[in-house]
Amino acid sequence: MRLSQLEVGETGIVKEFTDLEMSVKLMEMGCLPGEEVRIERVAPLGDPIAINVAGYQLSLRKREAYTIVLQ
Amino acid sequence: MKADIRVALVGNPNTGKSTLFNVLTGLNQKIGNFPGVTVDKKVGYTTLPDGRTAEIIDLPGTYSIYPKSQDESIVFSVLADRHNAHTPDLVVVILDASNLKRNLLLYSQVADLKIPVVVALNMMDMAKKADIDIDVNLFAKKLGVPVVPISARKNEGTAALKNAISFANKFAFQEDSIDVNTIAPELVEAIGRELNIDNPYLALQLAHQHETLKFLTPEQSDRIEDLEKEFSFNSQKAQGAETIARYAFINDLLYDTVKKPVTAQGETHSNKIDKILTHKFFGFVIFFAILMFIFQAIFSWSSYPMELIGDAFVWVQDSLHHTLPPGPLTSLLVDGIIAGLSGVMVFIPQIAILFAFISILEDTGYMSRVTFMMDKLMRKVGLNGKSVVPLIGGFACAVPSIMGTRTIENWKDRMITIMVTPLVTCSARLPIYTLLIALVVPNRNVWWVFNMQGLALTGMYVFSLISAIVVAWVFKFILKGKERGYFIMELPVYRMPRWNNVIFSMYDRSKAFVFQAGKVIIAISIILWVLASYGPGDRFAKIDQKFSKPQYTQHMTPDSLSRTISSAKLENSYAGVLGHAIEPVIRPLGFDWKIGIALITSFAAREVFVGTMATIYSVNGSAEKMQSVYEKMKEAKNPDTGQPVFTLAVAFSLMMFYAFAMQCASTVAIVFRETKNWRWPVIQFAYMTVLAYAASFIAYVVLK
What we know:
The structure holds two protein chains of two kinds.
Chain A (H helix, E strand, L loop, with lengths): L10 E7 L2 H9 L7 E7 L6 E5 L2 E5 L1 H4 L2 E3 L1
Antiparallel strand pairs in A: 1-2, 1-5, 2-3, 3-4
Chain B lengths: L4 E7 L5 H9 L3 E5 L6 E8 L5 E6 L11 H11 L9 E7 L3 H13 L4 E6 L1 H6 L3 E2 L1 H8 L3 E3 L8 H9 L18 H11 L4 H10 L8 H13 L4 H21 L2 E2 L8 H10 L4 H42 L4 H18 L2 H17 L1 H15 L7 H6 L4 H6 L7 H10 L9 H11 L4 E2 L3 E2 H27 L10 E3 L7 H35 L5 H9 L2 H4 L4 H15 L1 H13 L6 H10 L5 H9 L9 H10 L12 H13 L4 H11 L3 H25 L1
């Protein structure tokens, strides 16, 4: 299951990343394995999305969310 | 100003770092440049309780010392360079108490560089509201550094912070956060040995960032590169391992120092606002309504102060003309330098208003929602959600908008945004469009409600946006991006704007504009003045001789005589000669030598057009006397054919030229300043001139 496949309001726990470069950037922002993430909303045109992670809101493109594998 | 201690302010974006900087330094701050980079260096001074003066450097907000944008790369290079005039003695790391976990990553990196650190725990009030309970004493003990709870917004705790700064140690006593030697032990050891660095984390960072660091010699950088190959160092993998280790340290640290409510709340307030402001339909409606309001404000609120500034300069010019002895020096000062200065100064109100709005939109957190909503649309044409802000700002003025592109991390996205922003119809084009449209488009209504002149003007605005988007799309294929584009961005909680920051931003940007662009504008206006006031050989003397004959002096009023003389002189000045020289080139566009002069002078700034037209058609006064310029241009006849000069084809051809041509010295200067490479302004100037010529030619041929 990938983060990009979750619906608004659903939660998941980060397991691993498929892309090294993205993983470095995401982990810096507090989105790392073991963290709970929740989809908060989707932009009006369907992309990017906003997630709640580590107590704040982070926006990322669906393509980037696809590199996050959930448990 | 001489300082006894140098303090660097470091923190995540949206933590109130600028607010703290403003609170600490007040108006006692200045903007300079870090040597060799474009990033503004904000420095201020504050007096400590013990009477010493502290210099405070406000470093750009960043989530980590691994840089993602140009602004961010300055943070590590300032902290790491230990043999430099800017090296801080102490770092104040500002942490958002309501979001400690992510904030502590940067702290732990900075702390490991073993520079003395003081922690300012900001937004304690917000944390309390969210029921986050922080054991500050235990927290400070575990970190091994002084921790001062503050609320920068309410100016609470800043006295205690100054106290902590004055009592700060000369040596770093903070606890180690992670064991750096587990990441790349041999490489760290080798770099430490060869470059004589005893801090393992600094050595590791040099391995990561040596390519962009200015203080390393090429030999040192090459040596590090060789060592990396020798120990097969993978920068990204090492960074990933480090980040995981740091978060393990942070989780451990927060385990017994911070108590949070089990169910996350506190965000609901912000979430409710987001439901409306990023709504599928209303999100865009609200966004466009805000835009319309900002445009209106930029035009209507600035018109009065702009008039005042313009009048003040006219008054200064007048009185100087009367008090100073006539002669070339006076003329250079008054008609060259001061006239050029007034051209810069009148734009201050628009720039200040634009930046007030941009700073309010950023401060409240709305701007990041705009980029969130627009990203998909902008990405299709090679731009980025964050490009929306400069493009909108371009309707007022390209100069501050190009300064605003620094927030775009991706190099390619930022360059494309800089390249297309000057295409958007800026306020300097407005007087030209209104004048030319009034000349050739009938003031009539079509379909009952739409005024034809208004439609033509709206058409020019829409056309400019379309051309910016098309050109961006073309650049998307030409420019080769070094890095992959991404859009990982914090959406900060909505807050009320801090009016102090808004005022500081207006002041900062206007000042930067006046000093940076002002120099170029003055230089160019001096050159233009020389070109328009002197002619080759004895042409001017012959004109004076000719008009001193009785058939002129007796049959013409002194007023009309002096106007005739000055227009004859203009035709024979270097500018006039230049106009004649380029006439063959611009003839296919339908322009004569007089328009040629206006085109040349307009390369300093577009708004010069109306003034030049006024001089050429020998009307006294400038843009204020629009009506008379309008009448003269309407009456202007082609001496060969007897037909009016300004036909529909010529007027639209001219408008097309002004729509595309890079006729703005300030923009050229700012593009150079922001890219620090002459290549970009040259490419921009070239492509815009080519487009201007082509569009102008097509318009003339089609409408003729």
